[in-house]
Amino acid sequence: MSGNRIDLLRPDAPELAARGAFAAGVRTVELVNRDQVDVARVEAGTPHPRTDRKLVLEVWYPASDEEREEHYRDVLLRDGRTRVTLNGRAIRDGQPSNEGPFPLVVISHGYPGNRFLLSHLGENLATKGYVAVSVDHPDSTYDDKGPFGSTLVNRPLDQLFVVSQFDRLSRDGGSFLSGLVDAQNAALIGYSMGGYGAVVASGGGVTQEAVTHDWSAPEGLLRMHLSGSDSHKALPDPRVKAAIAFAPWGMQRGVFDSAGLADISIPFMVVAGDADDICGYDKGPKALFEQMVNSDRALLTFRLANHNVAAPIPAPMESWQRVEWLDFVPFEHYADPVWDSVRMNNIAQHFVTAWLGLHLKGDAAMEHYLALVEEAADGVWDIDESGERTPAHTYWKGFQNRTATGLAFERRKPVA
């Protein structure tokens, strides 16, 4: 088996991490969002320049081909120069399954990142009957890292533009997506700044403090996402039925508050490490979760995990070497000091499968994987001689004995 794999499944992986019944196909697609404000080039007191915003996408989908080992070539690493080959099982340009349409999932990387950073999740979801679309966000990739204000403004706009365009393409008889994707039934998944975008796109407007901060977008452009503004009230897309944010950025910096987060009403899961030194925890993702009071919401916590929690692929071997043009080893962009990346990926695949299965596919059986004692360490493993659970058994469903150690899961229903 070749290295740099994104499709690994550990023997102790939770039940729903396993690949589904479909083979995965993959294609690279380009979309252009025309005549957008070029935030990266805005200067005070001058007309705002415009640009055509090109988005390069990796699209994973259920395929009718036989599954086999495949390669993702020329994938750029965090160092911004080195290109490597990743290995998985998605068939390049595979024949789409005729069993659709399938729900749409838009995947959004961090700052910086690229469309392959969460590719383990894209492949996995395609095998389970989803069309998963991962975006290269301009001004936010390894070789195109622009001003932070551009990401603040554009991230939710990019995410919802993809939903809109895939809805259009699903009705285009000349597109391979015709009849394949159900864009009326969509979800957003974001990591770090992608998680920020998912919060904003789901209805969580930003604060006035965020609009005027020195790290914000120039000329008050972030005001379009201001909580309570007409522009932000019009932003959420009814086609988006659920969201998941890994290590979402912003709460700890005053970007969101309880009033804005109360406007989120779709089911929303937050995944966080309680040792995150970028987004924080108690005042970051945990506070975000607690203040989405009108959402069916969940918080999955990896104890002792830092910012690279569950979302990034295992660090490619080429990233283990120090390079002279960075002051850190690129490995650090992908890996966690405590948790094994494959282990975290498998846990993420399990919970994402349960969350989307419940909220996009209406599979009530998924609720059993989400009705858990909050601290996994408090779960009791009690199986009788026939292998059946006893009434005393409270261990996390889908996890083998002793394998949920270090995890916590909280669930809250809307207050209304």
Which helices and strands, and how do they pair?
Blueprint: E1 23-37, E2 50-63, E3 70-76, E4 83-88, E5 91-92, E6 102-108, H1 119-126, E7 131-136, E8 140-141, E9 144-145, H2 148-170, E10 181-191, H3 193-201, H4 208-212, H5 230-233, E11 240-246, H6 258-261, E12 268-273, H7 285-291, E13 297-302, H8 331-334, H9 341-359, E14 407-412
Parallel strand pairs: 1-5, 6-7, 6-10, 10-11, 11-12, 12-13
Antiparallel strand pairs: 1-2, 2-7, 3-4, 8-9, 13-14
Helix pairs in contact: 1-9, 2-3
Overview features:
single chain, 416 residues, alpha/beta, 10-stranded mixed sheet, two-stranded antiparallel ribbon, 14 strands, 20% helix, 23% strand
Q: Which band does the percent of strand residues land in?
A: 15-25%
Radius of gyration: 21 Å
The unreliable regions are none
Task: Write down the overall mean pLDDT.
Answer: 97
Main structural class: alpha/beta
Largest sheet: 10 strands, mixed
Please bin the fraction of helical residues. 10-25%
Biggest β-sheet: strands ordered side by side in the sheet: 5-1-2-7-6-10-11-12-13-14
How far is it from the N-terminal to the C-terminal residue, by CA? 52 Å
Shape: globular
The sequence of SSEs as H and E is EEEEEEHEEEHEHHHEHEHEHHE
Helices, by number, come to 9
Number of strands: 14
Structure description:
Helix 1 crosses helix 9 and helix 2 (148-170) packs across helix 3. The strands form three sheets. The chain has a ten-stranded mixed sheet with strand order 5-1-2-7-6-10-11-12-13-14, with helices on both faces. Strands 3-4 form a two-stranded antiparallel ribbon. The chain contains nine helices and 14 strands. It is α/β, with parallel strands linked by helices. 20% of the residues lie in helices and 23% in strands.
